[in-house]
Amino acid sequence: MASEENLRLAIIGCGAVVENHLVPALKRIGRTPSVLIDVAPERIEIVTRKIGAKGKTALKGRDWTAFRDEFDAAIVAVPNALHAPIGLDLIAAGKHVFMEKPLATKAEDCRRLAQAADDNKVVLSIGLLRRHLRIARWTKALLEQGTLGEIKSFDVREGYVFNREVGTDALLRPDLFGGGVLMDTGAHTIDLVTWWLGDLDVVSYKDDGDGGVEADCVLEGRLANGATGRIELTRTRRLRSTILITGTQGFVEVHLYRNEVFAGSDNALAFVHDGVSGTSMEPQFFPDLFDAELRDFKLACETGTRPIVTGWDGVSSVDVIERAYKVRQPLKSAWADKAASAAKSTGAARPSLPAGSRALITGASGFIGGRLAEILGEERGVKVRGLVRQFGHATRLARFGPEIVAADLTNAEQFHKAVEGVDYVFHCAHDMRSRTQNMQGLKNLIDACVRHKVKRLVYVSTFSVYEPFPDGRLSERTRDGDRNWAYVRDKLDMEDLVLKAVREQSLPASIVQPTIVYGPFSKPWTNAPAEDLVYGTVVLPDRGQGLCNAVYVDDLVDGLVLAASHPAAIGERFIISGPEPVAWGDFFGSFADALGTAPPQFWPKAQIEQSNQGLLREIKRVAKNPKRVVQLVLRWPPARRALQAGLDSLPEQLKGPVMKRYFTAGERRPGETILPDPQKLRLYSAKAQVDNEKAHRLLGYQPRYDFAAGMEPTGRYLEWAYGDLSGTIAAKAKALSQPPSQPKDKMVGHAGALNAG
C-alpha cells in the first residue's frame, strides 16, 4: 500500500485508448504518470504531448523492467495476448496493476493473475468500465431482489459500425488480440450478463471469422436454472445495444452502455435502488466512466480497499469467450446464397487473375475495395494486400485474414513498400476532404507502380465525371462534366494523371468508371437510402421517373478484374453499369419494400427547388439540430482530439451543460422529410442511359445482375442490417407522437452516454 503523496504510476502501452481516454482521465483526477513504456517511441511522444508539461519529466523506454524502482502501480494497455505475461511479472515485482479489458485471453491465465495478486497483496483491477454505470448497478439489484421472479430468457443485441481510431493493427490479428468482436465488445457485454445472471453455459457459437478475426457473431447460452438466451454482437451495423430479460413475474429491457431503461413491466419500472428508479435515471458520460474506474484504482492502491472490479471479476467473461471459440461454427451471411442464385448466367466464365498472384487494393476498408478483396482473396485464390488509412476501419476486412497495411496517401515511401512484390494494383481510395491527398497520393502510387513494374494499375474513377448528365445515351465519349463541382474536377484530373503515365512512362494502366454501385455495405447507395427511409420520408422529383444507372457490386468487381487482366484495357476508360437502368422511384421503392417502410413521396421538381434552397436548407437543418454539426466534425480524428481537449479544459460548471447539450440524444429524430439537395435533384431528374458497349466490346464484360436480381441479396442484407434499427425507430416515433400526458407503452427514453464500448 502506498500513500497518496508517493504513489508513482507507470503506463505500459501508449496506444489509442491511453491517448484518447486514460490520459485525459488521469489529468481530470489529478494524476501524472512517472514512467511511459511502449515499443514505439512515436506513441510515447504523442502521449507525452497529451499529458502536457508534466509529461516531459516522465521516464520513457521500451522495457518497464529498466524502471522497476521508479513506480508503484501500472496501467497496462498492451495487446491482449501480452496481458498475462506482463501482468504476472508486474505483480511478482509487487506492483499494483490496472489492466485494460479483458484481463487475459485465457481463463486459466485470468485465474493465475487474480491468485498472484492475492498472494502478493497487491491491487489488480480491470477496465470493465460498464460496472460503473448506474444502470448496471440498478439492474443487478433488480435481479437480486427477485423483482422479475425466476429468469426464463434473455436476449442481447449489441453493435455499431466500428470506426474507432487505433494505434496499431493488434485488434486485426488473432495472435495479438485473441479474437474479434467477441473478445472486444464481448468482454464488456458478457461480463454484465454473467454478473447479473450468473454462470453461462455455451450451447452454440457462430462467427464470420475465416482465417482472421470475426466482425459478427451469435452465441446461444443457458443459465444454471435452465433459462436460455442469445447474444449477438457486431462491428458492421447498428443494433439496439440492449438486453431484454424476461422472468416469471415481469421483464425489463435496459441499454448496455447508457443509463436508459428502454422498456419494462410495471414492477420493473417502479423498482428503486440507491434512490433511482427505471424512470428517473440521470445520464453518465463516457469520460465519467474512465474517471470512475481510475479513481477507484487509485483509492484501492492508497488505502488497501477492494476495487470495484477485481481480478477475479474478470474470469467469468473470458471463460465464456474461450469456450465459445472452442465450439465455433461458421456464420454465413444472410445474402450470400441469394447473390449466387440470383446471378444470371451469361455463358462466359467469371473473370479472374492468375491463382497465386498478388494484388494491392487501396481503400480496402471501403465498400468497393472490401468486396474486391473478399472476392479475389476468398473465391479466386489471389493473395490480397489491403491498404487502409486507419486500422480501426478494417475490422470487417480482417475477418478473412488478408495482409493489411496502413498508409498515408501522401507518404511516398509507404506507397513504395506497399506496392513492392505485387502484380496488380487497384486504386479504390479517395479522400472526399482533401484534393492534395488525392492528387499527391495518385502521383506517389503511379511512381511506385512504375518503379516496381506492376502488371496493371486499375484506377477506380466514377461516371460522375460526366455530371450533370445529359439525357439520352451516356458513354465514354460524352463530354466532361462540370469542373466547378470539386468531386468531378478531382476525378477528371486524376484520370488525366493516369493517362499521362500510360503515354509518357509506359505504365500499364486502365480506368474504370462505376455508376451507382449498390449491394451489401454500400454506404452511399444502400446504407444511406435505407437509413433515410427508416428515419423519415424520402422525397423524389415528379413521379420518380429519372433513370438510375445501377450496378450490383459483384458485376463491378468483374469489370475491375477484366480491366486488370485484358490487354485491350491499357490506356482506356470504361463505364461499368448494370444491364439496364431502373427508375429512381423503383430503386427507392424496392428498398422500402425490403425494409417494410413507407415508399418515397413524389413532389413537383419546382416545389423541391423552392423548399430546398441550398444554404438556407442547411441553416434550417442546423437550427433544428445543431448536434449534427458536432457529429460531422467528430468524424475527423484531429478535430475530435481538439474538441476533447477543449471539453476537458472547460470549468466544471460549464462542462456538464455542454456535454448534455451536444453529446446526448444525438441520433436522428424520426419523422424527417428528406429532400434531395440541388446536385441530387439533378441526378434524380436526369434521363441518361449508360451504355456498356465499350466494356463489352473490348473486355467481354457481361453484367449478371439486373436490378431485380441484385435486389435479392441486397434485400436480405437490408433486413439483416436494419431490421433491428427499424423496430427501434418505429417505437421511438410512436412514443414521440403521443401526448406527454399519455403512457408510452412502457417505453422510457432518457439521454444516455457516449458509446462506452
In short:
With 757 residues, this protein is an alpha/beta fold. It has 26 helices and 32 strands. It is 41% helix and 18% strand.
Overall geometric form: globular
Helix share, percent: 40-55%
Under the CATH scheme, which class of the domain at 134-283? Alpha Beta
Write the CATH homologous superfamily of the domain at 134-283.
Dihydrodipicolinate Reductase, domain 2
- Per DSSP, the total helix count is 26
**Content-based structural category:** alpha/beta
Spatial strand order of the main sheet: 13-12-11-7-10-9-8-16
Rg (CA only): 27 Å
Largest sheet: 8 strands, mixed
Task: Please name the CATH topology of the domain at 134-283.
Answer: Dihydrodipicolinate Reductase, domain 2
| Distance between the ends | 31 Å
Structure explained in plain terms:
This protein is globular. β4 (73-76), α3 (83-92) and β5 (96-99) form a beta-alpha-beta unit. The model is unreliable at 626-635, 661-665 and 740-757 (pLDDT under 50). α14 (435-452) packs parallel to α15. The strands form 8 sheets. It has an 8-stranded mixed beta sheet. The chain has a 7-stranded parallel beta sheet with strand order 19-18-17-20-21-23-28, sandwiched between helices. Strands 3-2-1-4-5-6 form a 6-stranded parallel beta sheet, with helices on both faces. The protein has 26 helices and 32 strands. With 757 residues, the protein is α/β, with parallel strands linked by helices.
Topology of this protein?
Elements lengths: L8 E4 L3 H13 L6 E3 L3 H11 L7 E3 L11 E4 L6 H10 L3 E4 L7 H14 L3 E3 L7 H11 L6 E9 L14 H4 L3 H17 L2 E8 L8 E8 L4 E7 L7 E6 L2 E6 L5 E4 L1 H5 L1 E2 L2 E2 L8 H18 L11 H12 L1 E3 L5 H7 L15 E5 L4 H13 L3 E6 L14 E4 L5 H8 L4 E4 L7 H18 L3 E5 L11 E3 L11 H20 L3 E6 L1 E3 L4 H13 E6 L5 E2 L1 E3 H13 L7 E4 L5 E2 H12 L5 E3 L1 H7 L3 H10 L2 H7 L3 H13 L2 H11 L9 E3 L3 H8 L2 E3 L2 H7 L7 H31 L20
Parallel strand pairs: 1-2, 1-4, 2-3, 4-5, 5-6, 7-10, 8-16, 17-18, 17-20, 18-19, 20-21, 21-23, 22-32, 23-28, 24-27, 25-30, 25-31
Antiparallel strand pairs: 7-11, 8-9, 9-10, 11-12, 12-13, 14-15, 26-29
